[in-house]
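Incident log, entry 3
Record: Metallo-beta-lactamase domain-containing protein (533 residues)
Problem: checksum mismatch between cached and fresh output.
Input:
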Amino acid sequence: MATYKLAAIFRNPTNYDEFLLVKQNPPPKYDDQEYDSYVDSDLWDLPSAKLSSLSNASTQVVLKGADACSQKLNLCKFDLNSALAEVLEQVGLGSVSDIEWKFLKFVEEPNFGPGFTIETVYVTGDLVGTVKDHCQWSCKETCFNLLLHAKPGGDRIGPLAVNGPLKDSLQHDLLKLPPTLHCQEYPPGVNIIPMGSRTAKPYHTTNLIIFAPGNIPVNYEGSHFVAQGDAMIVDPGCRSEFNKELAEIVAALPQKLLVFVTHHHRDHVDGLAAVQKSNPKACLVAHEKTMDRIKKDDWSSDYAIVSGTEEICIGGERLRIIFAPGHTDGHLALLHVSTNSLIVGDHCVGQGSALLDISSGGNMSDYFQTTYKFMDLSPNALISMHGRTNLWPKHMLCGYLKNRRNREDTILKAIKAGANTLFDIVAYTYADVDRSIWVHAASNVRLHVDHLDHHKKLPKDFSLENFNNSISQFTIQVGIFCEEVSVDLQRAFFLKVDLWILRKLHKCAFRGCYVSWCCNCFRCRYAVLCPKQ
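Fresh output:
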């Protein structure tokens, strides 16, 4: 399934190298002085509109070359008239009927999930007339200058323009990819391929990111870089059934390859062994705490330990490593300097928010500090490892701060109302959420309580000792685990539950389920699994 969009490339009849860009509307403000003080810079992109399906056939505008799209999409079944009228309104021309429209191409988005993919129909037409003030004529040279020499706070160019008039000049076609994989190159030079992984719902993929600038001779001698290479991949975390495709990608890249991992979770490192087998000379780059949690069977080749203050050079391009704890205590981010785009690992996700891993040093105070650090960088785009690239970084990061603070306020309200156990606080805070989600919530509640304690906001009569003692009783009070709960979340939650408790749980007569335990592959911690029989 997909949703459809129409993007219009208006050509300047007096200078056919120019096309029209429209300043995009930012997301709504939060009506909060602090959050609204963080403002993303102007984003310019092609005028576009939703392409809706028609229930009945109607007279449509003539679109030359539409037959070229027929194998992918039957445009006769979509309301071209309304979509074209909307893009004309965006540029200030109202209903102009004398434009000769031509079909250019149909672009399918990779399946980032969890919702529908967005597929775009590009059309072109010559534009005569005066456009609105929020429109401007641009050309490839100007756009690439803004994209590849990006400055924090400077004007930005959106993905519709990159995948439209700028597409022929991108490096994406230089990559030799298996036909089963779909790549998006945005910003230019940053290639993103969602690959099936053992990640948590609602996602089902982890974004593999590839930097392969091409055959650019670079003299690395005497440089200050912690690691250098001709290409780099980030977070190869695909499931084993995709190892063949991953190996093909690696084999097509230069031998001087770096492998950067943001953190140790399985959906970010599951493909390491396949990478090492395909290129034994590759060098792994990771934080020390991440390396300690990666199994020797997954990686035994060369590696470089980093702390988050270093730089990497890939084919002449600089990438700055940023220490970004919060999700885990060894979590790293990566800033692509030329495009000012920030790869944030699991600090952000395309939809919703990521769970902080309490079993691997996840920390709410660190998370807040990292979020502010990211905003101070003023990135042009946020690239998470799950979901689409976000084009409004500061707005998204402020949303994370707002949501977590609101949740923390609710937790504090629950405590002041008399909730003193993990179950009581979760039940109060997530009363409107299905119980199968409560185990997800429990880890974050524990981290929020730690954060409140760190800032001395807990009531004096609240006993942390009693709260911590209540953790082992949480599952009994919840009543049952659902099979939807991921193993990683269960491992994280039961880090402090000892073997004696697990044996007691094993004897509990949970109807229709059983309890078992297993050793965590990264650290000797316990997990509880309760599949239905």
